[in-house]
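User: What would this chain look like folded?
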Amino acid sequence: MGLYDRDYTQADFDSPHHRTPQMRMLFPSLTPVVKWLLIINVAVFIPSYLSKPVGMFFYSLFAVDPESPFQIWRLITYQFLHDMYDFRHIFWNMLILYFFGTMLEKFWGGKKFLIFYLICGAAGGVLYPLLALAGVLDVTYLVGASGAIFGMLAAGAILFPRVKVLVAFIFPVPLSILAIILAVIIAMSLLAGDDNAGGEAAHLAGMAAGVVYVVTQNRRNKFKLKAQTDHYRRKMTAQRNLQADLDRILEKVHQSGIHSLTAREKKVLKQATEAEQRKNRY
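Assistant: Here's the prediction, encoded as structure tokens.
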């Protein structure tokens, strides 16, 4: 899979007024989070590929296992394991991570991209064991970053629908069209009981998580802003109330002396004094 990239490595990528840069083939520079994701995935795969007992040990502890539904860490760790018998599994996942992960990390920033990536992968890790425990799919280990990878494809299709992907390194297809085609193929494979139905379930769940994450972004931003605003208002109200209380206490000290204060008033005065000392210290 190749990519006609929209010059995302240039400074004008960040400009809201620059939406249609010249299309050209480009291998993007690695971004920090994508680089470490690639390193970790490869570092875990190599010993698994070279020694199958080591691979099975990793699977037993870190793969999604429907028979261990309460071991929540597996929803994250399984994303760094791959089929130890098939090099193509990790190769294609890491290739797509390289192209689309760098694109999304540059657009969102490292922290936001990493959260998104792990959420999409975890979504696949949730759906598969539910279907397996319900008897729809066979019970086995689930491994791979594909849930996160397909989540990236879905998010990219919404954010950058006109970016073109070279399917089989030959046919340029808009990312939005490719994502729809892949979703249909995955759904059909899952309904047909494909040999990799568990993986297809993870793919579909990852894509769904990617779509939900992007389309709800504005609503989540508004909710976050409202929460921050409400917190600031509560903080300012508390400070005003404290200052009014402190002014009254100081006036009482001035008129009647400190011995006239109640235990609560002394505590408020002490806290205000300590807060002022800390502020001056910094």
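Residues 59 and 141 are 7 Å apart (CA to CA). If you want, I can go into more detail on any region.
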